[in-house]
Amino acid sequence: MQFLNDPAMVEKFFSQTRKYFFTEVLSWAMAAQIAVVGLALLLASRAIRSMQTWCDRQREKCAARQEKCDDLDTIISFLKIISPFLASLIVIIAWRVAGHLNWPHDGLHIASIILLTISMVRFITGQMHNRVWASILTAVIWFWAMLYMFRTIDPLLDFLQHIDFNLGQVHLSLLIILRASVLSLMLYWFCRKLLFVWHFWLTAVSDLTPAVQILFSKLGGIFLFFASILLILHYLGLDITVFALFGGALGLGLGFSLQKVVANVISGFIILADKSIKPGDVIQLDDTFGWINSLGSRYTSVISRDGTEHLIPNEKFISDRVINWSHSHNFIRLHLPLGVSYESDLEKARDLMLAVAGRTPRILQDPRPACRLMGFGDSAINLELRVWIRDPQNGVANVRSELYWGIWKEFREHNIQIPFPQRDVNLKTVPDSKIRTGPEEG
């Protein structure tokens, strides 16, 4: 109030404000900084627009695959957030260069804070459903940014910096821990979105095989995870050798308690590397028959013909005997044994079986179906129909059933008998004899 009641002080304040405005704000240096910010926004906008155009082209290509369209929606939402972030990176680089050359750079500093704040607000509140909490967090973030812009946050930072402790030979403070927490959260979010982009490029754009796509996707996730951990440890100033003892204890624990889990994870990478199975393959493992739905780090998802999804540990595919019906090709030969009676016309039976195979839709005509005489049994002549299919993922038992139904109908119409085991029982007459019913005389 004394400040407002003193005309001289008020005049001095407005004089200094006017001088600062005309010398610092309305100056060629500030105009150059505004031009740099505008250029950064333009470059970021062009980069994001190019990415969105690429996403639109991919959406047209993947219109029939809903899961790919969902990935594209995630990528587009990611682009909306990183647009101001890209501009802020360009401005920060220009700010560092200007500071190194002792050029005016206050405007660049304020612009970088504003752009980073916009990115942070979109990042934190973009996925929140409760708009009240979203508004509160937005206000808190902007208040924090204002403290940075007007350089009034130093007392708070000094207070947080003095709340410190030692972890061995490493000195930590509450300020460093808070910054590391924010950095961890942002790295987690950024790596998740980047993995979406990487996975979409592998599956929708690259020409790699499905097994190699999954392998590269998992390797990319592991690389980003360890890179983030190393970056956070470096920021905290922790020496990696500190974790040597922890690594030894972890290895000992894995050797005793988690060996099955580790074995399954390593087996998963071996499967992906040697391409023994891949998504879409038709496999048979023990009593499980179906096609590979997905390959996980610990298990493989196999969907059987009845829709049941089996989660099989990866170790089973390494140690057990696996039949892959479509490993190198999809051509499968089916064997259908059948017996006809000795009284039937054998050549007619053969022609009927080949005719049924010829009109069954899924049976290939090249290689041609064949009927073989396998031997003479006790009650039947043993024949075997051999046919080829190239779509085992659509089932094998249904093809057998369709062939047997057709053969049965043809045999009934043409009086070809399918015998069943018979046994002849010969009854011999017992000669007349007297049966003693009382005690023997004499």
If you had to describe this structure to a student in words, what would you say it looks like?
There is one protein chain. By secondary structure, this protein is α+β, with helices and mostly antiparallel strands. The protein has helices spanning 2-5, 7-25, 28-61, 66-100, 106-125, 131-149, 154-161, 174-205, 210-236, 244-256, 259-274, 314-319, 346-359, 397-413; strands spanning 164-167, 170-173, 282-285, 288-295, 299-304, 309-313, 322-324, 332-340, 370-376, 381-389. The model has no long low-confidence stretch (mean pLDDT 78).
Average pLDDT for all residues: 78
What is the H-and-E element order? Answer: HHHHHHHEEHHHHEEEEHEEHEEH
User: How far apart are the first and last residues' alpha carbons, in Å?
Assistant: 156 Å
Tell me how many strands there are: 10
Helix share of residues? Answer: 55-70%
Strand content: 5-15%
Q: Could you say which structural class the secondary elements and strand pairing correspond to?
A: alpha+beta
Question: Strands across the major sheet, in which order?
Answer: 6-5-4-3-7
Number of helices: 14
What sort of overall outline do the alpha carbons produce when their principal axes are compared?
Answer: elongated
Q: What is the radius of gyration computed over CA atoms, rounded to a whole number of angstroms?
A: 39 Å
What does the main sheet amount to? Answer: 5 strands, antiparallel
